[in-house]
Specification:
The protein has helices at 4-28, 38-59, 68-100, 107-125, 128-151. 80% of the residues lie in helices and 0% in strands.
């Protein structure tokens, strides 16, 4: 059921995901690298996670809102989902694209490469600016969504 808290959480988390992707491009990736539609895909994932995860939790069981602690925790939980899911998905897509170029001759080589890409992606986003933007912003998104869940009906 659509609620104002879900809408606000989804839009704010999508904007946060886009901004975090831009922060990754600026602060964590080498200069001049082309990222394509990376920011837009992150924003779409943020929209879905903001609606389904954060928005549902901040709306509360009776759509009357929730406590501040639960709202902030919902925002941080959404950030964890987006971060871990994004790293896993990006490393998998990288491995698949290299597999289609016939770089690997066995499944084990591809799985090993996937884990190497996963580790490299995790090290790339282990930047304090990136993580601070994502998790600090997610706490604020959860808080704003919680306020919207308590005041707007």
């Amino acid at each position: 059921m659509p609620t104002p808290a879900k809408l606000i959480s989804a839009l704010l988390f999508a904007a946060l995901a886009w901004w975090t992707a831009e922060t990754i491009r600026i602060h964590a990736l080498p200069e001049g690298i082309v990222v394509g539609n990376f920011r837009e895909w992150c924003a779409l994932a943020g929209l879905i996670i903001g609606w389904k995860t954060i928005g549902t939790r901040v709306s509360g069981p009776l759509n009357k809102g929730t406590t501040v602690l639960k709202a902030v925790t919902a925002g941080i939980g959404g950030a964890v989902i987006l971060t871990v899911g994004g790293v896993i998905l990006n490393s998998f897509v990288t491995m698949i694209s290299e597999s289609l170029g016939r770089k690997y001759t066995e499944v084990g080589q591809a799985a090993e490469a996937w884990m190497a890409f996963l580790w490299d992606d995790a090290l790339t986003i282990a930047n304090p600016i990136v993580l601070g933007t994502m998790f600090g912003g997610a706490a604020v998104v959860g808080l704003i969504g919680g306020v919207a869940g308590r005041t707007l009906r």
